[in-house]
Every structure is written in C-alpha cells, then in structure tokens.
Amino acid sequence: MQNVSVAVIPGDGIGNETVRAGRRVLDAAAELDGGIKFEYTEFEWGCAYYLRHGEMAPKGFLNTLANFDTILLGAVGYPGVPDHVSLWGLLLPIRRGFEQYVNLRPVRILRGVVSPLRGRNPGDVNFVCIRENTEGEYSNMGGRLHAGLPHEVVVQNTVFTRVGTERIIRYAYQLAANAPRKRLCGATKSNGINYTMPYWDEIFNEIGEREFPEVNRWLCHIDALAANFVLKPDEFDVVVASNLFGDILTDLGGAIMGSIGMAASANINPERRYPSMFEPVHGSAPDIAGRGIANPVGQIWSVSLMLEHLGRADLGKAVLDAVEDVLEEGRVRTPDLGGRNTTDEMTDAVIARLAQRL
Ligand code: ATP
Ligand code: MG
C-alpha cells in the first residue's frame, strides 16, 4: 500500500469548494484502486487568516509543509487583501522555498468542450506549457527614485541564473523527447530584450544540440508565439517559457480550453527534495464564491497531475478520462459551461464515470 500524506490548503473563495471536489476524486480513485491511500491535513491559511493574524500563514509554515509528500492548493487571494500580500505571503514562498521551478500547465481541448477557437476540436490541441517558476522577471528586485517628481525613475530587475535557466530548459527537453512528435518551442524576445533573452536562447540551443539532438527545437518571439497559440495551436508538443512569458501564455492557453475553470497546474520540484504542489489555474473567483457552482474540473485535473507525479499515471489518466466522459455526455455542467449544475453534482458525475473506468 502506498500511503501519501497530503497537505491541503483550500485558501480563499471557491478554493474551499473546489478543493473538496479534488479530495473526493482522490479518495474515490484510491478506494477503487486499492493500492494507494491518502491522508490529509488541512491548513486554514490565506486571506481570512491574514485578516485575523496579519500574516497569510504562521511563521515557519514551510517547515510544517516540508514533512508532507505533496500539497493540494485551492486558490489564494481575496478582495480586501492586496495581491502582492497574498502572493508573497504564501504562494511564492512555497514555490521558491521548495524549489518548485517547473510550473507545468497542460493546454488541451477536452472531449465535449467547445473551444472559442473556431474549427478547433478535441484532439487538435494537446500540448504542455512549461513555465519557469522561481526567478526571471518576477525577481522582487528593483527600485524607485524621485517618487512623484518629473525625473522619477523606476527599475525592475530580471534575474536569469545559469542553474535556473538550464534546469527548466532541460526539463522541457526531457518532456519533448517523450512526446510523439518530439517538438519543443522556446519562447523568446531576444530582439528587444538584449541581455537575458539572448542568454536564454543560447542555453536553449546548447542543451538541444548537446543532449537532445533528436528533439525538433525552435525559438519563437513571444509576440508571434501568442498569435500562434490562436492560429496554429496544433503545432506544439511542449512550449518552454520564462516566468512572465509563461504566465501570460498559460492564461491564453486556459482561454483556448474553453473555460478558465478547467485549466490545471503543477508546481514541481523534479528532484523530489521537497513536496510538489498541485492547483487549478483559476483564482478564488469572489464573484461566485460560496454559491457551490464553481467548475471543479481545473482542481480535479490538478489531482490527476498529482497522481501522475506520485507514480500513478494510470490513475491520473483514468481521472481525466472520467472528466472527459462527463463533459462529452453533456448532461451535467456547471454554469460557466452553460449548464445549471453544482460543483458537487459535477464531481459526483466524474466519480460515477471513474467507477466505470477503474
Ligand atoms: P487571481 O488574481 O487569483 O488569478 P482573478 O480575479 O484574476 O483571480 P479568477 O478568480 O480566476 O481570476 O476569476 C476570473 C473569472 O473566472 C471570474 O468571473 C470567475 O467567476 C471565473 N472563474 C474562475 N474560476 C472558475 C471556476 N472554477 N468555475 C467557474 N468560473 C470560474
Ligand atoms: Mg488574477
């Protein structure tokens, strides 16, 4: 029996509703399989905690989390607490402290979903974005001089280290080497950004040439690449991008998939020195929080990624297949997908399908 300890951080808003859906699906998969078992510990950290205690989580929370095999996160951020407080107070310390330098986000039109891209059907679009998750443009370094004066100057530094750049690009190559068409696209902007991006390109080409000659690699400027996400999304197997570029591209990827409520993400520490963290791409959605109508698919897909990371790709695939069965059947849908069902009803439907598949 594989026993897995899961730290659960529901966070804010609909995170509380979707995390419950994720846990229920994990438990259903575990029970049907019989070879894996999950033990959860919930932590009520986030913006509500901040309003009571003046911090997003208690001091030393990373030490607490380090003892778990994996982390399941809902969503963090709520009106009344500035974004930089919620981000730098909880999410970013976990990503950086646990060296979760890979942010993996699948971009895929699921069966039964209508993409806003005209003429694109399930099967046409199926690739993975790898976003650098610890450095780059989100460096927290910079400064502001002469505030409010006509000669005011503001600088934000971008940091690309050799270790940080090589490890994310190598990870993306490894994924691409296992993809059917072995295609890897690197996002760049080396014409306008003339120190960091040429460096990124250099390492991209070096590692490709030396270690992965079998991978078909190409670099694409971020502006053209964004256009190609819309015009030629079938071209991609794996896309690797810096922190900022990856952030923007994956939101676009989520939009292509039909609803932000369906996109999932994994924050991975590939060396497994620290726990990895799995979460939906969407935020806390204050506009629909507390009504029980959030789409649980992004969170359920995130537990599918978790299962894969735990060495149970078979279970992860069964979960995503079950989600697609429900979407294709089209009977049970949350309002963002044009239906009238609740989060719980959609989760029930996925679990029922899962039971047929396992
Ligand atoms: P954050 O800053 O945390 O990324 P945000 O305000 O930018 O959050 P979301 O919280 O993701 O973005 O919400 C954007 C819109 O998408 C909202 O209208 C929200 O209701 C909707 N939305 C987000 N997630 C879901 C979901 N799981 N199901 C249905 N609608 C969702
Ligand atoms: Mg946002």
Automatic annotation (TrEMBL):
EC number in record: 1.1.1.83
Family statement drawn from the similarity comment of this UniProt entry: Belongs to the isocitrate and isopropylmalate dehydrogenases family.
The UniProt record lists the keyword Lipid metabolism: no
Cofactor: Mg(2+); Mn(2+)
Domain of life of the organism encoding this protein: Bacteria
A Pfam family this chain is assigned to: Iso_dh
Catalysed reactions listed for this entry: (R)-malate + NAD(+) = pyruvate + CO2 + NADH
Protein name: D-malate dehydrogenase (decarboxylating)
Organism of origin: Symbiobacterium thermophilum (strain DSM 24528 / JCM 14929 / IAM 14863 / T)
InterPro entries xref list: ICDH/IPMDH (IPR050501), IsoCit/isopropylmalate_DH_CS (IPR019818), IsoPropMal-DH-like_dom (IPR024084), TTC_DH (IPR011829)
Record keyword Manganese present: yes
Keywords linked to the UniProt accession: Manganese, Metal-binding, NAD, Oxidoreductase
Domain Isopropylmalate dehydrogenase-like: 5-350
MF term (GO), any: NAD binding
